[in-house]
């Protein structure tokens, strides 16, 4: 009897712990209402990446840009309509965030089998995980049950998303404001092992920073001239070595002062994250484990659950 009671107490304690960590989210949230959800999402993401391998990074970034503004509530997907102002035109998102069409395609496929059940916010979370996995990254169980916001905040998108020009202390603060540690920040920055960014975003780094490998700077300067307005949208890979494979090569770039963004190189520049960057550069398993932990934490930033928010029929507009 005693052992069964202690077992019950332990179960309750674990239940409370998981409740504290993840609100009302659960990995089995749609088990009965939409059992085929994850395979449907994976299928659409797989097709999208097959036709454009950059899309894996774009979907991961979409999730990050959603969660840092009002929490993981799909507010980033809302269009400007009438007097309603969304986040798509915020400085960090405009002409930069991609993948809205993929989310719409997933939503259409999910609605066909499970109408009015699955939130756009959960679709964004699943697509980010699948984009990571399909490019060779780690997998994790995505907690589900988020609902969609009826509001958005362009101002918050402009103020809360970390700048590519940010210094280390500003980066640590931006993530701390969302309940993420410096270690989470350094692990999540490893998402830059995939994807590309525009000349106008890295121009200052390649012409003005001192802590940059000169050969690397010259390589990037070759098609990103110093003159603003010239070749602004020319793309360069964030990871010099394996731009379309999710691995730990990004951290190796930082050790050689070949971080493309100022904010990237700040992680390895004589500061508090140097040892962790070194560790990740030589230990892919350690990076993957910490990345998964940080992604799960990020996915639990202020979700709308229960009766809050709504399940949007069209991800781009409020019902």
UniProtKB/TrEMBL annotation:
Residues given in the record as Ca(2+) 1 binding sites: 66, 69, 71, 73, 75, 87
Cofactor note: Binds 2 calcium ions per subunit.
Subcellular location: Secreted
Alphabetical list of InterPro entries matching this protein: Haem_peroxidase, Haem_peroxidase_sf, Peroxidase_pln, Peroxidases_AS, Peroxidases_heam-ligand_BS, Secretory_peroxidase
Molecular function (Gene Ontology), one example: heme binding
UniProt binding sites for Ca(2+) 2: 193, 239, 242, 247
Magnesium as UniProt keyword: no
Matching SUPFAM superfamilies: Heme-dependent peroxidases
Binding-site residues, heme b: 192
Keywords: Calcium, Disulfide bond, Glycoprotein, Heme, Hydrogen peroxide, Iron, Metal-binding, Oxidoreductase, Peroxidase, Secreted, Signal
Gene3D superfamilies noted in UniProt: 1.10.520.10, Peroxidase, domain 2 (1.10.420.10)
UniProt KW ATP-binding keyword: no
Catalysed conversion reaction: 2 a phenolic donor + H2O2 = 2 a phenolic radical donor + 2 H2O
Marked site positions, Transition state stabilizer: 61
Major localization listed first in the record, in broad terms: secreted
Residues that bind substrate: 162
E.C. no: 1.11.1.7
A GO biological-process term: hydrogen peroxide catabolic process
GO cellular component: extracellular region
Domain Plant heme peroxidase family profile: 24-319
Annotated S-S bridges: 34-114, 67-72, 120-315, 199-224
Signal peptide (residue range): 1-23
Function: Removal of H(2)O(2), oxidation of toxic reductants, biosynthesis and degradation of lignin, suberization, auxin catabolism, response to environmental stresses such as wounding, pathogen attack and oxidative stress.
Family that this chain belongs to: Belongs to the peroxidase family. Classical plant (class III) peroxidase subfamily.
Protein name: Peroxidase
Organism expressing this protein natively: Panicum miliaceum (Proso millet)
């Amino acid at each position: 009897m005693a052992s069964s009671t202690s077992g019950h107490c332990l179960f309750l304690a674990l239940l409370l712990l998981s409740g504290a960590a993840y609100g009302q989210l659960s990995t089995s949230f749609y088990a009965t209402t939409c059992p085929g959800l994850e395979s449907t999402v994976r299928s659409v993401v797989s097709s999208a990446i097959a036709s454009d391998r950059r899309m894996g990074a774009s979907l991961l970034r979409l999730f990050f840009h959603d969660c840092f503004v009002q929490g993981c509530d799909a507010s980033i997907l809302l269009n400007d309509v009438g007097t309603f102002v969304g986040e798509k035109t915020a400085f960090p998102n405009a002409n930069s965030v991609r993948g809205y069409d993929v989310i719409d395609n997933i939503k259409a496929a999910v609605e066909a089998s499970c109408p009015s059940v699955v939130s756009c916010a959960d679709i964004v979370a699943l697509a980010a995980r699948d984009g990571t996995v399909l490019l060779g990254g780690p997998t994790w169980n995505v907690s589900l049950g988020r609902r969609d916001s009826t509001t958005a905040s362009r101002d918050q998108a402009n103020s809360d998303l970390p700048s590519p020009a940010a210094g280390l202390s500003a980066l640590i603060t931006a993530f701390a404001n969302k309940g993420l540690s410096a270690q989470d920040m350094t692990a999540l920055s490893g998402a830059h092992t995939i994807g590309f960014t525009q000349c106008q975003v890295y121009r200052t780094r390649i012409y003005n920073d001192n802590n940059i490998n000169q050969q690397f700077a010259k390589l990037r300067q070759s098609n990103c001239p110093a003159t603003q307005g010239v070749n602004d949208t020319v793309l360069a890979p964030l990871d010099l070595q394996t731009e379309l494979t999710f691995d730990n090569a990004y951290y190796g770039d930082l050790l050689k002062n070949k971080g493309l963004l100022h904010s990237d190189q700040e992680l390895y520049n004589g500061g508090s994250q140097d040892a962790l960057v070194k560790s990740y550069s030589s230990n892919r398993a350690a990076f993957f484990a910490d990345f998964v932990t940080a992604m799960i934490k990020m996915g639990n930033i202020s979700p709308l659950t229960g009766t809050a928010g709504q399940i949007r029929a069209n991800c781009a507009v409020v019902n």
